[in-house]
């Protein structure tokens, strides 16, 4: 388990976990970024488990736009990361 929280924020079908719920030993900062018109600029983490790297599998908005302020300090997942 790389993160655990009963307090996720769901936006566009993605669960955004509080940053403090992440087990940071599985996360490595990535240089990748992307831009969303209404959320802002996303930064990414590689997820590394048992030596296997899932590049850019987690993302967050360090300074989300006002319309997305509810995801400030939260991290979401994709690329095969299962959220239960």
Q: What percent of residues adopt helix (DSSP H or I)?
A: under 10%
CATH C-level class is Mainly Beta
What is the arithmetic mean of pLDDT?
Answer: 96
The outline comes out as globular
Number of extended strands = 6
Instruction: Write down the domain tally.
Output: 1
Strand content: over 45%
Summed up, the helix count is 0
Q: What is the first-to-last residue Cα distance?
A: 10 Å
Oligomer: single chain
Radius of gyration: 12 Å
Side-by-side strand order of the widest sheet = 1-2-6-5-4-3
The H/E string reads: EEEEEE
Low-confidence stretches: none
Biggest pleated sheet: 6 strands, antiparallel
Query: What is the fourth-level CATH superfamily?
Result: Domain of unknown function (DUF427)
CATH topology: Metal Binding Protein, Guanine Nucleotide Exchange Factor, Chain A
What structural category do the secondary elements indicate? mainly beta
């Amino acid at each position: 388990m790389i993160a655990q929280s009963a307090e996720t924020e769901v936006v566009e079908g993605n669960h955004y976990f509080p940053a403090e719920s992440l087990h940071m030993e599985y996360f490595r900062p990535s240089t990748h970024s992307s831009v969303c018109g209404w959320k802002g600029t996303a930064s990414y983490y590689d997820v590394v488990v048992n030596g296997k790297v899932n590049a850019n599998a987690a993302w967050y908005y360090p300074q989300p736009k006002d319309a997305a302020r509810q995801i400030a300090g939260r991290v979401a997942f994709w690329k095969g990361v299962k959220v239960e």
